[in-house]
């Protein structure tokens, strides 16, 4: 099983949506891949309530994907996460490349960067639709 790692700032919204959507679509496509997700700056999510963003939950439900009652809380990235990932994707280059450079410089060049801003810049429906499009392209590429 190959491992895909999605990264965002708080591991609450974008990366969690990407993780769940990718895993759902990968199973349907019969891919030998599994996604996980982590935070690059977990402390910036002090106002996040619960394990996953209501925006992510709502969009996943629209796509027929249900989140488990015992969903884990957001988690910080570690060197082990990067070392065991076959591929890593940070969801917003402008926000996440500087965090990678500051906190995980040895892994910065190994990460692929997309450009999907957080809700303070891009409305959730727009951002999650863009992530969905990119995930569907990724699944097709890996199939």
Structure overview:
With about 140 residues, this protein is α/β, with parallel strands linked by helices. It has a single domain (about 10-140), classed as 3-Layer(aba) Sandwich (Rossmann fold). The protein is built from five helices and four strands; from the N terminus they run βαβααβαβα. The chain has helices spanning about 15-30, 55-60, 80-85, 95-105, 125-140; strands at about 1-10, 35-40, 85-90, 110-115. The protein has a four-stranded parallel beta sheet. Helix 1 (about 15-30) packs parallel to helix 2 and helix 1 (about 15-30) packs parallel to helix 5. It is globular and about 40 Å long.
In terms of topology, how is this protein built?
Elements: E1 2-8, H1 14-29, E2 33-39, H2 54-62, H3 79-84, E3 87-90, H4 93-103, E4 111-113, H5 124-142
Helix pairs in contact: 1-2, 1-5
> What's the architecture in CATH terms?
3-Layer(aba) Sandwich
Tell me which oligomeric state these chains represent. single chain
Overall mean confidence score, pLDDT: 96
Strand content of the residues, in percent?
A: 5-15%
CATH topology: Rossmann fold
Give me the side-by-side strand order of the main sheet.
2-1-3-4
Query: pLDDT under 50 segments (min length 5)?
Result: none
The tally of domains stands at: 1
Main beta sheet, described? 4 strands, parallel
What is the H-and-E element order?
Answer: EHEHHEHEH
What structural class do you assign from the helix and strand content?
Answer: alpha/beta
Rg from Cα? 14 Å
